[in-house]
Design brief:
39% helix; 4-stranded antiparallel sheet; 385 residues; binds zinc ion; single chain; alpha/beta
C-alpha cells in the first residue's frame, strides 16, 4: 500500500476522536493565552498516540511541542487553538487544531521510512498578541525545513492574501471639568477621539483596497457631567506589505497628532502584541497542496482567481518569513457566514466543517509525503526574500 493510502487509513482510525475534540473545543472556547484546558487536551491526544510531548513549551504556558521521528528534515505543523471573546470559535481554530493533530498522527508511522521529523506545535494567541512571534523568538522554528497549517474560511484558497498589521492603542488625555457649569475649563479627550475617527473615515477614500484601519473605543469617559479627560481606543492598521503599512502608519500618526492638537489634548500611541507580517506562500508547497486537495476531491482557488478580496492577518505571516510555509484556507459552505460570526463557529461542527478538517489534515500529510518521498526538500524556499 502506498504511503498516502497508509496515512489516510491512520487518519481514519482517529477521525471520530478528532471530531469529538473539535466539538469539545467549540463548547469550551478559551481566548488568547488562556488556552489552558485546550492545550492540555491537544497535547495529551498526541502523547497518547506516541508523540514526545513538551507542555508547556518555549516558555509559554499554553504552547506545546509534540515531536515524532528521529532524523531528517523537520516539518512544523501549527495547531492554533485560541477562540475570540464573545463569539467563541468563530474563526474555526478548533478545525485548525484538529487538522494539525490529524496530519501529525497520519504522518507519524512514516517518519522512519521516509526520513523526516514532524512537530505538531501548539501555537496560542493568534487572534491577539501573536503567539507565533513569541515562539519564533524562543527558537521553535529554528532549523525547520517547512511549516504549515490550514484555516477554515468561506472559500478554499491555497495561497490567500494575508495583510501585515499593527495592533495599536491610542490614548488621548485632556482635562476634567464640570460639563455644564464650567466646560471651558476642560479639554475633551472624547472630542480628540471623534476627530481622529472622522479623519480616518475621510482618509478611507484614498485607501487602496488592501489598506484597512478599524477600531473599537474601550474608554470613552466616566460620566456625562464630567468632560472626558481620558479616552482609549484599540486600532488595527493593515496593508498588503510592510512597506505600505509604514506609509499608512505615517498618515495614522499625523491624524492622531492633529486630533490632539485641535482639541488641546495630548496623545500617546502604544502597541498591543506584535506586528504581523504579510504571508509568503511557498510556491512548491502551494502546488503540492493544490494537487493533493484535488486528489481528495476539493478544488482550491489560487488567490489571483479568488472572489474574495484581501483576507485578514495572521502571525503565520511572521513564520513564513523565517521558514518556507503555507496557510491554505479550506472552504466551508457557511451559507453566507464569515469568520468571526457566531454562525461560522456553529458551522465548524457540522459534517461540512468536519470535511474541512479531514481535507485539511490529509492534504497537509500528503504534501509532506510528496516532499519526503520525492526528495524535494531542497526546492523549498523559492519565495523567501
Ligand atoms: Zn480570526
Ligand atoms: Zn483564525
Amino acid at each position: 500500500m502506498d504511503a498516502k493510502q497508509r496515512a489516510r487509513e491512520r487518519f481514519e482510525e482517529i477521525e471520530q476522536d478528532l471530531r469529538d475534540l473539535s466539538r469539545w473545543m467549540y463548547e469550551h472556547p478559551e481566548i488568547a493565552y488562556e488556552e489552558r484546558e485546550t492545550s492540555a487536551r491537544l497535547a495529551a491526544f498526541l502523547a497518547d498516540r506516541g508523540f514526545e510531548v513538551e507542555h508547556p513549551a518555549y516558555g509559554l504556558e499554553t504552547a506545546f511541542a509534540a515531536r515524532t521521528g528521529s532524523s531528517g528534515p523537520e516539518v512544523v505543523i501549527c495547531a492554533e487553538m485560541d477562540a475570540l471573546p464573545t463569539v467563541g470559535h468563530a474563526c474555526g481554530h478548533n478545525v485548525i487544531a484538529t487538522a494539525a493533530l490529524g496530519a501529525g498522527v497520519a504522518l507519524a508511522s512514516l517518519t522512519e521510512e521516509l526520513g523526516f521529523r514532524v512537530t505538531v506545535l501548539g501555537t496560542p494567541a493568534e487572534e491577539k498578541i501573536g503567539g507565533k512571534v513569541d515562539l519564533i523568538e524562543a527558537g521553535a522554528f529554528e532549523g525547520a525545513a517547512a511549516s504549515m497549517m490550514i484555516h477554515p474560511a468561506p472559500e478554499s484558497v491555497v495561497d490567500p492574501m494575508v495583510l501585515a498589521v499593527h495592533h495599536l492603542i491610542v490614548e488621548f488625555r485632556g482635562k476634567d471639568a464640570h460639563a455644564a457649569a464650567a466646560p471651558w475649563e476642560g479639554r475633551n479627550a472624547l472630542d480628540a477621539f471623534v476627530q481622529m475617527y472622522n479623519a480616518v473615515s475621510m482618509l478611507r477614500q484614498h485607501f487602496k483596497p488592501t489598506d484597512k484601519m478599524h477600531c473599537i473605543i474601550t474608554h470613552g469617559g466616566d460620566a456625562p457631567n464630567i468632560i472626558p479627560s481620558y479616552t482609549r481606543s484599540e486600532w488595527y492598521v493593515r496593508a498588503d506589505t510592510k512597506a505600505r503599512l509604514e506609509e499608512l502608519m505615517d498618515r495614522f500618526r499625523a491624524i492622531v497628532d492633529a486630533a490632539a492638537s485641535a482639541t488641546g489634548c495630548t496623545a500617546e500611541i502604544g502597541a498591543e502584541g506584535y506586528e504581523y507580517s504579510d504571508l509568503i506562500s511557498d510556491p512548491l508547497m502551494v502546488d503540492l497542496f493544490l494537487e493533493n486537495a484535488a486528489a481528495l476531491g476539493r478544488t482550491m482557488n489560487r488567490a489571483e482567481d479568488s472572489d474574495e478580496g484581501a483576507a485578514g492577518s495572521t502571525d503565520m505571516g511572521n513564520v513564513s518569513h523565517v521558514v518556507p510555509a503555507i496557510h491554505p484556507m479550506i472552504g466551508m459552505d457557511t451559507q453566507g457566514a464569515v469568520n468571526h460570526q457566531p454562525e461560522f463557529a456553529a458551522h465548524t461542527i457540522t459534517p461540512d466543517g468536519e470535511q474541512a478538517m479531514r481535507d485539511g489534515a490529509l492534504a497537509m500529510a500528503w504534501t509532506v509525503i510528496d516532499l519526503a518521498a520525492g526528495g524535494r526538500w531542497g526546492e523549498l524556499g523559492a519565495g523567501q526574500e
